[in-house]
Every structure is written in structure tokens, then in C-alpha cells.
């Protein structure tokens, strides 16, 4: 176990060092017109996060993301449990969900804007529609792959539907559902940021879009760095939990 | 099985009729969404008049290039990586967190590096698609039974021949899963890039129409993109199923 942790820590370190090196080389190749070196970016990021103007944007993004993630997970879980548990509806709707998963949801953003208006609700909706489907699909598959004997045992013990769901299906399906939530997390984050990039007056996505418009390379690099670090850290943690759950199962 | 397909059709027809009714009863107003039959009619008009053919061709060509590149580079990378365990382990965290990173943030950088033509959009589409192919191909290569590899060795096949004749064909259904994802992600990448900054393409036309409240152009184009991606995905899924069935796995 500890040898495992050590190895994964070493791998991460090597990877980060490799990426930094690649970044520096790309900087030497592309020059100041296109990007900044790692060091310059870190310095600017430090200045950015200590400035007052930055925090409202961050809190706006975090609030939108938290709401979108909550909606994505709860709606995804309910849909997944329904379709996974009730076979006929699952057979009818699951292929439709898979087809929906494959469409480029970014094309729907004008419709979301027209339906929800500019601002917070549109961002939340856009984030949520990215996250709901993977959570639902993984939940359906998790429930379907549960050994029938477990459910039969529940029936023999005369448990109701709700009790079966709570004390048998849910624990047995947790590892797979968690994988769905992990992927839902990533997609919801992207959805929320995209929503902010196209239609918002606040938030990190807006900051990035604005920086693109003004060709403010310092700001582009700093915001990108912050987003990448946040996404990589959280999904790294989620991935570790995910692996542990799967190993135990 | 027939009945399920019938139900599915009923659900789709029902939802469309519901939308139609809501639109005609003005619950959803005209500025938000035209009724579905109107969208279909507008789509037919647009396709017949050919005024957006250039934009459609541009997006589809770029998507085709990006997806092909993603599949070729992805399969090659995965085949190479499969042989180098330590490199693969090092890259694992990158693959696992890759899709949590908003790749669009690199778009301005790509514009400066590659110029204002089609290249940055293709690059974004490629970057979004390639990792899905790599991950799924690796997953497929992991499942190649040892006996097949042994057989290849007994036949004295080289590394390349083994990959071409034994391991990659075995992994084909998994590669297809990756290809399906690559199609979806590449389209997202290219259309998103066109939304952000470009001089043409379907994404550009959609956002232009959106800014001008031109629903007669926007909705048909969105519908067209959805139809194309669902059709491509459906075709690949069917092929995948055929491959799996031949092995008695589905």
C-alpha cells in the first residue's frame, strides 16, 4: 500500500516536472507574443490571487459550479436509479441517454441562454446538462451489474423497494456510481466555464474570455493555470478515492 | 425488442408533439424557440438554397481531419505506450485528469502559434479527441489474452506485425468506443472554437444568428449538428455491436 502511494507520488512528480519542462521549451519556441514562461506565470498568478478584483470572480464561478454539480449529481442519481431499477423504462430510455451523451452540448448553449436569460441560471443549467447524463449512465450500469442474488436475498428478507435500494443496491453500486460522479464533476466544471465564457459578466470563464478579447497574455496564462491546477487537484483526489472504492469492492 | 423500439419512437414523437403544442400555444414564445415543424422547414430551405454550404463544409471537413488525426495518433500512441510500462504509469494521472481541464483555455495560445486559419480549430478538436482514443485503446490492449500473444510469438511475428495482425484487431471494439468519444469531443472542440473566435463554420454561423435573434438560421443549424452527431454515433455503435457479437460478447 505505502509502496503504491510512493510510486504514484513519484509518477505525479515526474509528470509535473515533464509538463513544466515542455511548457518552458514551448515558451522558448513561441516567444513572448504567444505565451509566458512558467516562472512569469506563477508570479503573475500570485499577484492576481492577492488582488481584490479577483475574488468576486472566483466566488461567482464556485457558486455556479457547486449549484450545477448538486443538480447534476442529484438528478443523475434519481434518473439512474429509476432506469437501472425499472428494466422496461431502462430499455426504452438508456440508448436515448447514450445518444444525448454523444451530442456536442455546446451547440445547445444559445437555446439555454434564450430559455434562462443571461447570468447565473444559464451558467448553472449549462453546467448541469453536461454532468447529469454521465452520472445517470454510470448509475444505470452500476445497478445492472449487481448480482441478482443480492436483490433476491433482499426479497427473501421481505424488504420493501426503498429498503432494497438503500441497504443493498446503493452500497453494492457505490464504486461504479462514484466513477460516474467523478466524470460528472469534470464535465460539469467544463460546462460551467463554457457557460461563463459565452455569456456572463462575472466569473473565471468571463475573465478568460475577456483576456482573450484584450489579448492579455498574462491573464490568459494565469487563469488557465489556476483552472488546470484546480481541476487536476480535485480530480486527482476523486481518482484516488475511486481507486480505493474499486479495490475494496 | 420490437416493442421497445416502438416505445422509444413514441417517446420521441410525444416530446416533439409536446414542444410543437407548447410553441403553438405560445407557452414558449417565438423569440425563444420556433415550433419544430418550422425548424424542419427552415432546415430544408437552408440546405436547398445552399447559402450555408460553405460553413457546413468547413466545419465537417475540419471535424473529419481532427477525428482522423485523433484516431491515428491515438492508436499509435497507445500501441507504443503499451510496451513501456513506466512511461505509461507516469502518464496515467495526466489521462485521468485530462478531461477535467478546460482545453478551450488553450485556444488563444493556439491561435497565436498556428495562425488564424483552420489549424487552431482542428488542433482543439484533435486535442479533445485524442486522449479518449489513447485511453480506450490501452484498455483494449490490456485485455488481449496471453495465449494470442504467445501464438504471435510462436509464429515469429515482429512487434509491428503482432500489433497489426493480433493485438489491434482484438482491441478493435475498444478502439471503436474511443473513436465514438473522439467524434463527440472533436465536434465539441471545433464548434466551441468557432463560437469563441473564427471567421466561418457552423459554430460561427450559430453564434452570429444568436446575436441577431435569427432563429430561422440558428435552430436548423443546431438541429443539423445534433442529427449528424447522433447518426455518426449510431453507425459506430452498430459496428461495435457487430464486432462484439462476432466474439459472442454481446
Q: Explain this structure to me?
A:
The complex is a heterodimer of chains A (249) and B (250). By secondary structure, chain A is an all-alpha fold. Chain A has 2 domains: 35 residues; 213 residues, MetI-like fold. The two termini of chain A are 16 Å apart. Chain A is built from 10 helices and no strands. Chain B is mainly alpha-helical. Chain B has 2 domains: 33 residues; 212 residues, Orthogonal Bundle (MetI-like fold), CATH 1.10.3720. Helix content of chain B is 81%, strand content 0%. Chain B is built from 10 helices and no strands. In chain B, helix 5 packs across helix 6. The mean pLDDT of chain B is 86.
In short:
The complex is a heterodimer of chains A (249) and B (250). Helices cover 86% and strands 0% of the residues of chain A. Chain A contains 10 helices and no strands.
